[in-house]
Amino acid sequence: MEKSVINFLKEIVIEAGKIIKENFNKSNTVHYKGKIDLVTEIDIKVEEFIKKRLETIEGDFNIVAEESFDGNLPDDKVILLDPIDGTTNFVHGFPFVAISLALIDKDYECGIVYNPILDEIFTAESGKGAYLNGERIFVSKTDNLEKSLIATGFPYSSVVENIDKLLKLLSNVLKNTRGIRRAGSAALDLCYVAKGVFDGYYESNLKPWDVAAGKIVVKEAGGEVLNIEGESYTFSDKFIIATNKFITKDLLRLLNGV
Ligand code: IPD
Ligand code: CA
Ligand code: CA
Ligand code: CA
């Protein structure tokens, strides 16, 4: 039987994960895209490895990958790749790093987020549910913001337009929830919403490859991914919010109350 698209992509990602694992906690050459915006030789190596392997995929797909992005983002027939989501974590040996790969083809989409250090692979296909290491996962059932654990992330300092606003948001969320986590990988933050570890997540200024796969995983686990207006999130939105659906109204109110 012919291999399914998702299984083909999974094999590639697992193979590429070995490159990350072998080089984790080693001193890798770091280059600077901005003052604190890092890229290592391993980001490049993983990206090149995956792109090479994708050459054999059937269909005319555009590959959009972080380290070779040319500014062109087609909205269909596209594969979005973040070779290491959590490069700062990778450089510092914090084991929250992942390869994020999503494929969007008309009515079909699938997403894979693989953390080779913790050996966790999140997968989802449209209409077929979300999985962690092959086991079905679901968002949490928490409907009370005060009992919710919320994840977030901070944009690189160069793109923080309004630090007061960012701090006000943090303070609002901190005062009204059980706590906040900033783990350093947007793709995994989304998958942990899908797994029911986090009840909600918000961040701004992300790129399509950060969130493309995680968004599919959240939706297939029963959650929702929205913009700050509460509409379905698109890659051109500045703000992304993911929830288990039950805390959406309250979290949106909190994030808009600034
Ligand atoms: C970053 C991570 C981080 C988020 C940053 C992203 P990178 O991606 O997803 O959690 O807060 O904004 O840029 O650069 O490590 O691939
Ligand atoms: Ca980066
Ligand atoms: Ca990223
Ligand atoms: Ca990256």
Automatic annotation (TrEMBL):
Binding site residues for Mg(2+): E66, D82, I84, D85, D210
Molecular function as annotated in GO: inositol monophosphate 1-phosphatase activity; metal ion binding
Stored CDD domains: IMPase
Catalytic reaction annotation: a myo-inositol phosphate + H2O = myo-inositol + phosphate
Coiled coil: none
Record carries keyword Magnesium: yes
Database matches in Pfam families: Inositol_P
Biological processes, Gene Ontology terms: inositol metabolic process; phosphatidylinositol phosphate biosynthetic process; signal transduction
Keyword terms of this UniProt record: Hydrolase, Magnesium, Metal-binding
EC number: 3.1.3.25
Cofactor: Mg(2+)
UniProt keyword Nuclease present: no
Similarity comment: family membership: Belongs to the inositol monophosphatase superfamily.
Protein name, per record: Inositol-1-monophosphatase
Native source organism of the sequence: Deferribacter autotrophicus
